[in-house]
Amino acid sequence: MEPNAKIARIAPVAAPSGSATSGSFDRSPGSREAEEAARYRLVIEEGPSAGSYVYKTLDRVTGEVVRQLPREQVVQLMQGGDYASGSVIDTSA
After folding, report:
1. Coil, helix or strand for 60?
2. What is the rounded end-to-end Cα distance, in angstroms, of the chain?
């Protein structure tokens, strides 16, 4: 930069009314997505067998389990004594 350079102040430009940049971010798609994402919470619980975990996505408002991995049926199979990885599907011909 030159030592005698002039620095001009930039004045803000008013956005036209009704535009997305009018200062109201309450209705923007990004804020709605963030609000919806904040509604859910991840809970990690220890599974029925050693070293296994159950991941649950809970709705903070209703307390409902939205998604669970592994599914409840698989967790029930894991609680049985004869369950082992790969024992659900018989691949022998």
Report:
1. coil
2. 78
Beta bridge partners of 68: 56
Query: What is the mean pLDDT, run by run of 10 residues, along the chain of 93 residues?
Result: 63 61 64 83 87 90 90 81 68 73
Helical residues (DSSP H) of 40-81, grouped into ranges:
72-79
In the chain, the amino acid numbered 47 is G
Quick check: pTM over 0.85? no
* 11 three-class SS: coil
One-letter amino acid of 45: E
Q: At which residue do the structure tokens 């975990």 appear?
A: 53
In the beta sheet, which residues pair with residue 44? 55
Instruction: Please state whether the peptide bond connecting residue 12 to the residue before it is cis, i.e. omega within 30 degrees of 0.
Output: no
Q: In what order do the strands lie in the sheet with 65-69?
A: 40-46, 53-59, 65-69
